[in-house]
Design a protein that fits this description.
Bestrophin (chains A, B, C, D, E), elongated, chloride channel activity (chains A, B, C, D, E), transmembrane (chains A, B, C, D, E), about 375 residues, mainly alpha, 15 helices, homopentamer
């Protein structure tokens, strides 16, 4: 377990903030003078990082065409080029780039927020079990350990389905066993389940879900809960964990229609292509023809705004990937393990200050 | 039951992901260079698959008109044609295509997400029953089997109402009986219900709902529940199943107004028609007149973007149909059956690792 | 009661689907070739049905102006007409028709979806009571009947407030008494309530709500519930019914601001007027002047798209009216009565298949 | 108490509909021919009522400028005027009026709907207490009265914070005492609370909230509840009342940013100013120059559409004010008092029809 | 504790309204004549306050260019300047400023509303504990004090993560101890936790959460709760507090993509730059050239509308900062402390009016 526990990775799902959230490019005082400007010159997760490779290619093509036009074409060729370029330029305006893009990105971000909101954590399930288990149970601590391990295992098996980095870290059940989250006989049961009709690596988390239910049932039958009702409350917590996972999977797999993503991508590439081709047409003045020929900013900027906007949308369609803006699920899982260790140690702890001690908080 | 259980169809409602979700056209690392381009050349569920037939027809008409204009019309005819085409072209811009379309698709996708979110599953109802039933009940396993069968039956009868593929697989009650989900005498009761005032094939699921309530009541009266409160919790789970089904049906039947769909469809066809007719007007230069005559891309592309967008909206209006992007309800039902088998077998199981065994998870 | 029970009206709130939902203008396979076209030629609830009368009037005015211009005006008059028409035409473009309309319709449809979602049904309240009442209660069946009648009565009195067709069917308390939903002495109590300060026909449903609470209280005090907790659960169900009704009334009465509806209506009529007046201005070519004079499609189509869109919005603002797209509350109420009869008969029923019988569902 | 109870004000929060909801400007049959037109000529809450004063001022300025231009300016002055007017007219188009306005109004209406949805009522809290109190409690009726008074008091003290008309009706605690909702010693306690650190007129409702909790606690300790669990349920109802009030206050005080409202207001006034100034520029024809000079409709209409839209947004930002479209909180409070009287009288009532009597509802 | 308790800061989370909410720039009667105008001349939180520094800089640059153009450039230079300016001006129109901006601000405000709605308070948790603790517990008051202190501590440690002003007021655990919210030994435990793997200042609130659970558990084991079920209800309240905090942190840290904020900021600065450069081009008339040269309002106004809109969006992205529109968390915390004092004093209080006294509220 220890090997992931390097000090940098200390994120729990509830508490995953960095030391200061200004780092997100928005300072805490947005109205201070000059504050808007500062955020522009940031590299990590930035607009520039998203587009710099594409910008270089764009510039190379742009200048090649300028040079080709100026030195390789004769007057007739130039006239033909002008005609074709102006012909193409005209239809750019009828491309519904902005509206396709706006529709796509707002849909993608909505989905993203929904996934964020419904991402289940392990905290509630574990806390409830720890709190509702009697203190004087013989195998109390072992029982808590087993329960915590199953909850973490179910969480991991659920999110492996949608999250590539988790799949890469834990490529198969053996890897999970090596990480200490799975016993030999449990792994064999899961492998056996995968051999049955309807059993795949995706339904393994449901088997663990059955184990959790059975464990709760046994705990209840042995009368280990403080209050009889606690059985139902723990069952509900496991249900919520299962349902939250199911919602995330549903959102992640029933994606935004591919046709829409393709349409918007094609539209933007067309827009970019035309913006390159049509750049020399109108300029007759010397200064502006040089500018138009070698400084493509006025043509390139709108394209790259669209392009970055598209990228933002695409990142949002896969929230568990490797992009910088994605949710880092390895860290999140690490946080769940740390939280689980904390909660396990809290089984049977005493409050630090007894109620008969001096209390520093003088409410008058 | 076995005949649908081919290994490929192993989807459970919570866990219906394919092995890798990149297949959805969005790779896990959207920011990697060249990644955007790759998704464009995909066929399944693609933009191209949606429009290729229409594109061929569009092209044939387009070229026919070019040829007709060039070879069949004399100068006067051409002038007339030009006048009419330019007259029509002018009003294209006042067609509120984009706004009608945007309104329609966003409404349709909202509905689609709502249906997705409220789709009820059988897992919770079955789990609760299995977990809360005492171990030492004489007919325990038979009782679990009966309960599971009724839950699946109610789910099936509910979704048959809105889902054509399910209706085709199970065209009548006899087909459901043959699939092993219905007894002879139960079928007769349902047939009898359909003969009563207000009874249709649509209210059959409500009869099964009554049976489930009666079964729970009987189980409670016989004192077979572990805790008395479990009766109410099971009743609630059945209520939630019924309500979820009702919500799906409400959304599916109270559709987006037909008039809106017609208006947006007519607007887009008009746009397409005018884009074909008006293509030869302005080009006097030889190169561009050839392009304009035989390469309709600049005119066709906006039209097909709109057309594909419309299609996406129409697909979203019927989420349970036969389209590739639709929810495959046969698979979902198969998944529910597999899940039911798993849960049935989990009645009375022991946890694989006892709490006194060695636990691999060393929390320090 | 029987008189509404014609076989055609058999809709229950959860299950109000027609036999096949394709009838809604969207086929189950939206991607099939030619499928989009078919929906256009539908009459019921269609775009054409919404606008055909207005279209005739539009055409008559349009042609009258053409004839008046051509035959009644001399050259000077024509010049004046041209000047005025072109003056008016210019300002059409600055009318914020599309944005007002988009804002209005999306607000209206949002409200409509919210009403749909919060519409309470009688099923849950009745089911809970039937399920939680002991079998061996002396007046059990009569008690169930009374409870069901009160629930239906409360539902009816609530929805009469917002739904004109229900008001027309049941114009006063006497009509409800005649329908068998009200006793003589109950009606007198309600009439008396209306005479008290703050009592109107709108608060009658609250009196019935008090009766329901009193009935539950009495049932609880006599110990007729299976489990003591059931009292609270039944109270909650009645609360939910009351609250759902209140939400529907709130949404229905706090409507979209009248000023907004007027503004958007005036804007669209102005748009239509200008589109008629300005139609002959620009055309000098013989063919197009004839087209412009007698075939107003290019001018009329945008107007009628806006007009139909407005209509859709207006229909959505009153979801309980007489329009084809409205929710047919008479059918819904009929469905509630049918459901109530079913649930009443389910009091004390046995499940059709005993748990010791052969079970057709072989889970292996 | 009686003085507000005039018969006209008989609205309860759930049931605040007027006799017929068509009065809202939308008839029940929106598709009937001519129906759209009728709503236009309505005065109450209308577009015209919102703008008529501004329209008169607009017209006076408009005509003054026309007259000044025609009779006071010489040719040079006219040329200068033309130049300035056309210079200003040009930039109107770059004003983002529509988008600022659309953003502002949709945000404002969203907030409004959220406040509407979360507005708490007194019904649930009172009903629960009345229903769960034993019949044979010695001071039962007095206890109910006290509870009801505290609930109403808490509601009133909460909504006084956000609602000016309520503040005007009940300007201080003495006025509330005179209305019979507060005892002398209770008022003194509240005044004393206001003198303590952190105590203002805004936190008074929290003191009443403490009283309610104490009253419930005492009722529970004396064993006056039918079921032990009812204590918790009543506490929850009071919590919900407190939370709902807090949400309303949060929404009402954390308003839409002032800067946004100012920006949109300035943009619209600029738009109006320029529409007045630029009206004589282009018209050279006699008829249209007269129209342009004295009939400002084409210039004024877009402006007044924007203006009315802005007003609708501003009304929505303060839902508890004195505007016609606002929620009439005095009526709502009146309705709560009437409902409270009804619920108080329902303590210990019998159902009108005993379960052994003849039941008019023959379910077959 | 007393040092923050100056009388001005008396806000509780539920009740944070100022004396009159008109101060928010929207009067209570938006339809009164002249009301719209008044709000424009407000300074606090105003449009003008947001942009005045930028406006001065804008004006200085603007006039410098005018002077440079008029006096420093010769005719050729002016021609070159005109060419470049007009070249740049042309591409302004293709900048997707409005759509980027609209997308950004609506996303930001949605997030802001979500944070507002999910911000947890301490009231519910404390009330539940106070209400459910028995009166005759020996260390009752000390127990309540300890519980309240832990709840406040957990709230503070949670919001310190996202809120800079709270971090500045309480820079470390020692500062919190000095404020009386932390004991020496508790602080040492928290410091020790920070030294463990996965422990940071961000996970400290989870340790306090464990203490709260342990305290509840001990209270339950000693039988100090009035009703056994109260244990579970208190656990749930603490869970809700933890979850609410987690949601706020999630929203605050997973911010709007930086690339989007950069793109929209760059687009607006480009727009502003071009609006400055392109201002002298077209004006040949003396009056308008002077206006164009020294009165930049027509060019500046659209830019500053966009700029202010951007600022509003940026303020919304960090709701806990130092801006005037931000939520003042120091006041909110102060309010929580005041509320805690009030609730602590309400432990064991009697209701002010006994149920046998005269009741001023005569319900007839």
């Amino acid at each position: 377990m220890q090997k992931h526990s390097n000090k940098d990775v200390n994120v729990n799902i509830g508490i995953e903030a960095e030391e200061s959230i200004q780092i997100e490019g928005v300072s805490a005082t947005a109205t201070k003078f000059g504050e808007s400007l500062r955020g522009i010159f940031r590299w990590r997760q930035s607009f520039f990082k998203l587009v710099w490779k594409q910008a270089i290619i764009y510039y190379l093509i742009y200048v090649s065409i300028t040079l080709f036009y100026a030195f390789a074409l004769d007057t007739g060729g130039q006239a033909n080029f002008d005609a074709v370029a102006s012909y193409l330029a005209r239809y750019t305006s009828s491309l519904p780039v902005v509206l396709l893009l706006g529709f796509f990105t707002s849909t993608a971000l909505n989905r993203w927020f929904n996934i964020m909101s419904s991402m289940p954590g392990t905290n509630r399930a574990i806390t409830l079990f720890v709190v509702s288990l009697k203190d004087d149970v013989a195998d109390g601590r072992a029982r808590v350990d087993l329960y915590i391990r199953y909850v973490l295992l179910m969480w991991l098996l659920t999110f492996r389905i949608v999250c590539q980095p988790l799949r890469r870290r834990y490529p198969n059940l053996m890897a999970i066993q090596n990480a200490g989250l799975l016993c030999e006989n449990e792994r064999l049961l899961l492998e056996k389940h995968k051999g049955q009709p309807g059993g795949t690596s995706r339904t393994c988390s449901l088997v663990v879900y059955d184990w959790l239910n059975a464990l709760l049932r046994e705990t209840s039958q042995k009368g280990y809960f403080l209050v009889a009702n606690d059985f139902g409350r723990n069952i509900d917590a496991i249900q919520a964990l299962k349902k939250g996972g199911g919602t995330v999977i549903k959102f992640a797999t029933k994606n935004i229609p591919v046709a829409l993503i393709q349409a918007v991508t094609i539209a933007i590439y067309c827009y970019g292509l035309v913006s390159i081709l049509s750049h020399q047409i109108a300029e007759k003045h010397y200064l502006t023809s040089v500018m138009s020929g070698y400084f493509p900013l006025p043509y390139a900027l709108p394209f790259f705004f669209y392009y970055a906007w598209l990228k933002v949308g695409r990142i949002a369609t896969d929230p568990f990937g490797n992009d910088e803006d994605d949710i880092n699920m390895l860290n999140v899982f690490e946080g769940h393990i740390n939280g689980a260790v904390r909660l396990r140690n809290s089984y049977g702890i005493k409050i630090p200050t007894s109620t008969t001690e001096d209390n520093p908080f003088f409410l008058t």
